Amino acid sequence: MDRATRPRGPRHILALLTAALLAVSGITVLSSAARAADADLARNGGFESGLTGWHCTAGTTVSSPVHSGSSALQATPAGSDDAQCAQTVTVQPGAQYTLSGYVRGSYVYLGASGTGTTDVSTWTPSASDWQRLSTTFRTGAATTEVTIYLHGWYGTGAYHADDISLIGPDGGSAGQPPAAPTGLRTTSVTSSSVGLAWSAVAGATRYAVYRDGTEVQTVSGTSATVTGLAPSTAYGFQVTAANDAGESAKSANVNVTTVSGSGGGSSGLPTHALVGYLHTSFANGSGYLRLADVPDSWDVIDLAFGEPTSATSGDIRFHRCPVSACPNAESDADFKAAIKAKQAAGKKVLISIGGQNGQVQLTTTAARDAFVSSVSKIIDDYGLDGLDIDFEGHSLSLNADDTDFKNPTTPVIVNLISALKTLKATYGSTFVLTMAPETFFVQNGYQYYGTGKWGGQDPRCGAYLPVIYALRDDLTLLHVQDYNSGPIMGLDNQYHSMGGADFHIAMTDMLLTGFPVAGDTHNVFPPLRPDQVAIGMPASTYAGNGYVSPVEVTRTLDCLTKKTSCGSYATHGTWPALRGLMTWSVNWDRYSGWEFQKNFDAYFG
């Protein structure tokens, strides 16, 4: 029987008398009628509408396990992220509230902040099945908003949450998120950008733009331009409206195909290219290989290495391996003849600057100018097609006050960008420009950039990003070294380690999808075109840490170009125009019976 229809017996009369006596004494009690006016203020507490209403650093909805309904939250903390999901709720000042929910997993926290009194939280160290957490708080005399949140603990496993509720007096209609935007349309379409506009939404203070389901931009007005797109590529766009109470559902989808355009300087490369480094200035256990003897499968040959006379001189010299160290080294005349023969066959021969031992720090404009002059001399002397930047170690790092990859201020970064733009302008559109950074300098920028907001981080974190960004229209190929790398967090907010296809898939997906730098969704590193990206892998177990078998190489290519054999990592697209593979090195591949080359030839025909 419903409580409102129960007969009024002696206990009810006694309760009324007790309340009256307390009122006479100046003590206020919360009556049944007052409690009946309370409401559940948590929006989408059962996660039946995905993550609508919640702001999560990591998380998704799943259909199993659930406490009730058809969905629940699943979030996985990482090494520096506790996978928090939160929402801000409008409340009444000086009111009592009860926060509760059901959770599963290790170290799950439920709490409220900004209460105006004492912020509260409750947690469980281990819940193998659904466990109810509950806590109460009273808002301060001037408090009108409270943030409720869930999170796990750093580096532990995934947690689940469902049926989150905040019971108490309704704070008013100001707690409602705005409606979904309407009228989304394109205003301009180029080979690398799409302009969008939509109708204003009452109560909205900001709008978020989504590309293929991923948030790429937040604006205050009703228009935006999404950049960093690939030519002749289809994209889907949606927009949401938001205010302090939360975010709306997504608008209707608008599908746009960018126009064709060359940009970036593909410079006559085949649709799928094989890139390799040739040991030309030193000897090691792989043995010296004459340039004329490099098989025709290799489309880009990087001569390793040109090195500076000192770390900060900018003066680059290229010395071929002496006969005393490389007895079968060809003469300069034969070497130059081999370069011309390779070029006649459609191959590109580049000078690679840096390497493990060649630290290059262009700290001054004088060093910048010396770099341009000395590199130009090497290119002209040998008749080369372009330049590969293989800066490693401490060549690139960011000053503490350099926090925006789109507007760098650190001299070694600014001077390198200037030098490369000068070289590109000097030699024209056929000049081949490639880069071979380590993952620490690129994908690691998803988590960390430079020394960080509070200092203490390695200033080299993400230091290649401003260089790549500034030269994105001049860059022929980026082939990040997916080897000799520590674990790197992917766009799934999971750490990925070398040794299998998943590492290469996750690292390449980041380049082709783009990613917020240092977790800032308002500062997104835009994706590169697929024809600008090759995957860097060791040719053999002798060449470096991170070697994977031909089976794993094939699985990587299948996933990225066909979206098959993808394993545990879900990519954000399919890129049949992916340029190809890079390896360290041609010499080590020859040493191992041309395994890497043969697998590439078999895959791309």
From TrEMBL:
Entry keyword Signal: yes
Q: What is its EC number?
A: 3.2.1.14
Q: Which SUPFAM superfamilies match?
A: (Trans)glycosidases, Fibronectin type III, Galactose-binding domain-like
| Name of one Pfam family that matches | CBM_4_9
| GH18 domain: residues covered | 272-605
* UniProt domain Fibronectin type-III: residue ranges: 180-261
Task: Output the SMART domains linked to this UniProt entry.
Answer: FN3, Glyco_18
What's the superkingdom here? Bacteria
Name the protein family: Belongs to the glycosyl hydrolase 18 family. Chitinase class II subfamily.
Q: What is this protein called?
A: chitinase
Q: Which organism is it from?
A: Streptomyces pluripotens
